[in-house]
Prior knowledge:
The structure is a homodimer of 739-residue chains.
Chain A: H1 15-25, H2 27-30, H3 36-50, H4 61-70, H5 73-88, H6 102-126, H7 129-134, H8 136-160, H9 173-179, H10 184-222, H11 239-250, H12 260-265, H13 269-322, E1 324-325, E2 331-334, H14 335-345, H15 351-361, E3 368-369, H16 371-375, H17 377-382, H18 394-398, H19 400-403, H20 406-416, H21 418-436, H22 442-465, H23 468-471, H24 477-500, H25 506-520, H26 522-525, H27 528-539, H28 541-566, H29 594-597, H30 608-620, H31 635-666, H32 671-683, H33 698-706, H34 712-720, H35 734-737
Amino acid sequence: xxxxxxxxxxxxxxxxxxxxxxxxxxxxxxxxxxxxxxxxxxxxxxxxxxxxxxxxxxxxxxxxxxxxxxxxxxxxxxxxxxxxxxxxxxxxxxxxxxxxxxxxxxxxxxxxxxxxxxxxxxxxxxxxxxxxxxxxxxxxxxxxxxxxxxxxxxxxxxxxxxxxxxxxxxxxxxxxxxxxxxxxxxxxxxxxxxxxxxxxxxxxxxxxxxxxxxxxxxxxxxxxxxxxxxxxxxxxxxxxxxxxxxxxxxxxxxxxxxxxxxxxxxxxxxxxxxxxxxxxxxxxxxxxxxxxxxxxxxxxxxxxxxxxxxxxxxxxxxxxxxxxxxxxxxxxxxxxxxxxxxxxxxxxxxxxxxxxxxxxxxxxxxxxxxxxxxxxxxxxxxxxxxxxxxxxxxxxxxxxxxxxxxxxxxxxxxxxxxxxxxxxxxxxxxxxxxxxxxxxxxxxxxxxxxxxxxxxxxxxxxxxxxxxxxxxxxxxxxxxxxxxxxxxxxxxxxxxxxxxxxxxxxxxxxxxxxxxxxxxxxxxxxxxxxxxxxxxxxxxxxxxxxxxxxxxxxxxxxxxxxxxxxxxxxxxxxxxxxxxxxxxxxxxxxxxxxxxxxxxxxxxxxxxxxxxxxxxxxxxxxxxxxxxxxxxxxxxxxxxxxxxxxxxxxxxxxxxxxxxxxxxxxxxxxxxxxxxxxxxxxxxxxxxxxxxxxxxxxxxxxxxxxxxxxxxxxxxxxxxxxxxxxxxxxxxxxxxxxx
Amino acid sequence: xxxxxxxxxxxxxxxxxxxxxxxxxxxxxxxxxxxxxxxxxxxxxxxxxxxxxxxxxxxxxxxxxxxxxxxxxxxxxxxxxxxxxxxxxxxxxxxxxxxxxxxxxxxxxxxxxxxxxxxxxxxxxxxxxxxxxxxxxxxxxxxxxxxxxxxxxxxxxxxxxxxxxxxxxxxxxxxxxxxxxxxxxxxxxxxxxxxxxxxxxxxxxxxxxxxxxxxxxxxxxxxxxxxxxxxxxxxxxxxxxxxxxxxxxxxxxxxxxxxxxxxxxxxxxxxxxxxxxxxxxxxxxxxxxxxxxxxxxxxxxxxxxxxxxxxxxxxxxxxxxxxxxxxxxxxxxxxxxxxxxxxxxxxxxxxxxxxxxxxxxxxxxxxxxxxxxxxxxxxxxxxxxxxxxxxxxxxxxxxxxxxxxxxxxxxxxxxxxxxxxxxxxxxxxxxxxxxxxxxxxxxxxxxxxxxxxxxxxxxxxxxxxxxxxxxxxxxxxxxxxxxxxxxxxxxxxxxxxxxxxxxxxxxxxxxxxxxxxxxxxxxxxxxxxxxxxxxxxxxxxxxxxxxxxxxxxxxxxxxxxxxxxxxxxxxxxxxxxxxxxxxxxxxxxxxxxxxxxxxxxxxxxxxxxxxxxxxxxxxxxxxxxxxxxxxxxxxxxxxxxxxxxxxxxxxxxxxxxxxxxxxxxxxxxxxxxxxxxxxxxxxxxxxxxxxxxxxxxxxxxxxxxxxxxxxxxxxxxxxxxxxxxxxxxxxxxxxxxxx
Lengths: 739, 739
């Protein structure tokens, strides 16, 4: 359990900061030469730098207002909501999970398309016209909207006249995720993949050459021996089928089945398969990982480098807007100006946090900062600082005599003691054993109530001994987790008990069980080593979301194509069905196949949900038994899927996890983070600044990951900048002089 | 095709080198103060440094002679041969592939043990007695020999009196590979694994916690629903079985089978399995790779650092033996001494090669070298330099008029033209198509002869236009490959044709086919990009051999244990057998099991060969269906195997391939290699020094891999050493002063 640090001095009490806060009151007087428009413009630059937006907007006051509206979080969420609805339409369109009439889905799609058009028009108003049509992502969105409309009309017309029609434009839908302005993470990932492709291609060609050679050998070695597979088909007689089988062997899906007929014939033939697996599964797959890792990293690093440069550029522009000259010296920005700017950029920032950032920037208390210190602002704003005022416990204020009495103090000491934690760890473990026992025994059901009471007691005791607002502050993940789980479990158990009087609800019971088991997870957080691993995993969480989007885009496209190719080929029959077709999934081609025998009938492309689940199964193990039901060329679909998802995307995912762990193991904190921490200690601020695991933006993690590898010139400013020696405030980066 | 570079000046003609060679003749005169024993001692130090042997031998002349004998390649090969025989005994011992009487295997084993004892005694004579008993590897070998003898006696006695006996000491045999003095690569690998274990353990515990939690959830969600697996057994009702099934799901072996009953019941249950696979298969397996990679690398780096330090230490000792003072200056080693030393260390070194190494060391032609330059010698000797004298073609000497005639010149130009290569690439591709066709067609059989003639013609033409000794020099891998394949194919085809008159030999035909197909590989070498990838793979080849030994040790131990546990539980019946037991592999417990249905009966532990093949299958996909035939606790065997082989060793293998590729992508050449190349250019030596892919020792690759990461002090000498400015020949490394 990580408890909030407690310090006695609150920021309001600290004398150094009181001055700053008073200062900020008369910002309009010292910064009176700057107009509201100037501040708006500077704020937009800083905000763009902070979130790495690279949009060349018009700088007229009207365009800036429109641009601010464009970047409003509400509109961004709305866009994602419309995309989600558009993608979710696949659930209701033929082949549907929940069939809806065609006019309903069409109307919803039209509304979505209208929303995308509106967003595009809004964007067109923000940026110069000539830039708008030069940007491929705008053209892409425009084309997607247009093609979707055309497809809807053709599909409607064909359906109305009773012809066969395909909604081919559905493949384009996930591309919206990539091409909207907010999809820059995803675009960057795709760009890096595209750039890494040539290198991957060479290894892939070599790998395919190896597979083709082995297939030829297999054909010559086994083809004439008259062996049979367990399904009774001739073994290794058709070259293309051998190539496919051996390709699948690389994915380990058909091991050892594919080897058994040859191995049963002679033990020497095992040598062939062992060599094959060594070369193609182990060596080539590792080489794929190495090449994907290396190239993806290389291009991503290049992208991050450009990003950092663009960020500096924007910050220098903001500086240019707000700068003022004091006599002969370098241009500076006054504290008042800076305060107004920060409040514009981040309206919800606390005074103490702002003061802290200022004192990091203006290390020598000069009341103004130069270009170098100003440029840091975007990165400073991205460091998550939890400002925590250590307030007295409310009970101390309300009932001081009771709360400060010796029994009350004893309780507090007890709760804060390590033994309290260990006791509850033990209770959790005992609980785990009881959960494992049969819950229909009334004794055990009652014991579960006892555990629930114990957990509730724990939370109440903690709330009694710790300050409740600190206990429930935003970054106390495990406290929130505990409380929510315990209270939900309480509610679910009460509902369940109430219902049990009439009947047993399986769904409620399922929820109760899951909640009970989730409660056990807390044990992990109490072990330091485990917490370190989990924190790293949480840190890479946001980036895994980018991979999630990448996977959704690829899966969606494959699901749409797969549904058109394979829908209805395989049918699933409920367990209690007596249909004779059930034995072969409703397709006579699957009679006596392993696919039908293993009861895989629900692995089909009959609707978008089962398609997604099937694609996930294919990602794990490329079993593609049901290519039997279509033309042999359909196998290309599965091979392509394997190449795109397993060889490229999963490898990038692994590479990313590797890199993130290496960064955790080697890099400690960024320069800015440590200077921020130093400052907090120096100022003895009454706040514990927690650098939460995770950055506000994914780019923050990326920038830190490649920090060590970036060109010195990109970070020259940070490295040259010595807070104790402000004389070397030069700008070696030529980029900045051009402004 | 990489053709030998051709330069006109041969080393004999180069004036600078002529001097050197003449100098080396009177080495005994200038270095007359050193005795033969000194040179022997220095040579032993250098040789130890070159091969990273860390043996504290006695420095008496007699001990040195014994030590030289101990390191003789013949004795080393003999030791490996005896270990191989000892390991191979498993083929003949019960359960045997080829049964031999117990007294035969016992006698062979006794001979092997005697050989190991002799080697150990030899070693004891070489090093000081107190050191001998402090070294755990000596004690280990001693214990293995002793325990093997005890086991043989007990086993013999028990067998003779008709009791059941187990040859438990066979598990110890592969440990010999680790503990012999030559097994230092393997020991280093095991040491790095052992050091990385604690970190791996924490992740493994977290992973197991996750598996246990999910299993508990699965028990609660599915246990009471009365679902059945396709084998008709109750689905997810026993907690331990769920844990095992879900563990196997991580290896993807039972995907999607394990999910199907729940998925068929309700589509929502797929969410459970998807979450499980995401967390445990993708995230945890990546984290395992990251942790294994990072820790293994860290400890290996530490080992290499120690190695480099020890190497310097030994070279400084050698320097100390041979040094002489010239007046007031630093101690130096004269060229004559150095020459004698190098000839002792590497008797087969060519004069030109030695001269080259000297000129790299003595960059300023002073006739003697200091400590820093001397220390380089071990690394210089490890760089493979191919000395190639460009000699005229023998035909030019024998038949100059014919060979220099214009038609002959035209042929040479033609063969050396790119078009010749492309023509043969095309021929190979056409050949590939013909191989794919049915070889029983007499036309195609005859075409194959035509291709063979074309390939022979190619080799003859190349021998005509290129110098034959250069064509067949040691590093011309593809020329050798081509020639051997073509000639073997020719012989095999002739034998086959001769035999065909009586009968068709399938074995010969198989060889012919494989040779034909192997010939096609040559196409790859002609494509530059492919060659780069293949060269990297060849470079890491020797290290992969270390992994091979690691795998053999682990496999052998698991095979021995597995044979004791599972031998005879499953029987394999030949295809034409009519035994009714065939349907269930001779074990009624397997009736109607998927294992028997898939005809997996040959996947058993009935002898050492099938055990190894089965273990390989388990490495690829952990299918362990036949745990059904024994007690459920036998599953521990398979889980343990998976943890050791897949989670640890395979991940280390992948990490090594990754690292080697990154080194290829980023590092170009070591400092020494480039200074050697520079020297060759400077001296305009008439030899093309090829830095062959691959180092003479695995340590060379390791050292280069971690060169960038090593502490500066370890390489301070190399980096400070500026050949153009010999004034800074200082030794910042305190290690050297202690000598």
